[in-house]
Amino acid sequence: MEKRLRIGDLRDVKENLKNAKFDKTAWKTLGNELGLHPNRLTMIEANYKGDVESCFTECLSEWLKKVDDVEKHGGSTYSSLIAALKKMERTADVVDDLGDLLGTEESDKSQALQPKVSPGAELDIKDLNQVDTVLKKALFGAVNWKTLGLRLGLLATTLDCIEAEKSDQPAYLQKVVQKWLEKKDDVKETTWNVLIAAVKDIDNAAAIKIRGILKA
Q: What are the coiled-coil residue ranges (predicted)?
């Protein structure tokens, strides 16, 4: 039987989530998926005046105390924590890293990483998160967002507009993928094959990894 986590495990749980690069600002969503009631999460936020670190810590503390519907959500175990993370958006990498840290087989069993389309099938805007996740898994550098945009058929003026938003490179890369999926500018096709070809011109290793992910 899997070990039940207790309040004494709080430090280890926090450290593992930190090492898996979990975004602490999503503590409320995580708490909800772990079985904490919305009013409790609201109370935590009020008590700590929205301080992310404190709210995150208290959320995990309450989970480890098995309050509200925690038992109905699998109890306080790493398996239930991973299951909760899988239900959240953009956490596939966290699930994989946490699985690796714990030495479990939970890693890339996250279906979010397993495209349900063939490489030649057309993608659209609803596939944005999936494409973004696959690029991250393939270790494609966000620093290459502008070159990728040009390879995919976006115009330099469009890329300049994206850059004018004054965000960071991962955000620019996601915006490029979004514009591509929306078939802006000179984009003709939005398939995995087209994306892989564009990535290959920039980073052959990443292109190979994408093909591997699609075959998994």
A: none
- Whole-angstrom distance, CA of residue 29 vs CA of residue 23: 11
Among residues 132, 149, 143, the alpha carbon closest in space to that of 186 is found at 149
Contact call for residues 70 and 83 (beta carbons, < 8 A) = no
Q: What is the pLDDT of residue 107?
A: 41
C-alpha–C-alpha distance, residues 108 and 190, integer Å:
25
Q: Identify the structural domains of the chain with CATH numbers, from first to last.
A: 7-113 (1.10.533), 125-215 (1.10.533.10)
Mean pLDDT value across residues 13-40: 92
pLDDT tens column, 190-211: 999 999 999 999 998 888 888 8
Compute CA 41 distance to the chain's CA centroid, rounded to the nearest angstrom: 22
State the pTM of this model: 0.49
Q: H or E element: which one contains 184? A: none
Average pLDDT over the chain, rounded to an integer: 88
DSSP for residue 48: T
Q: Closest by alpha carbon to 91, among 33, 145, 12, 50?
A: 33
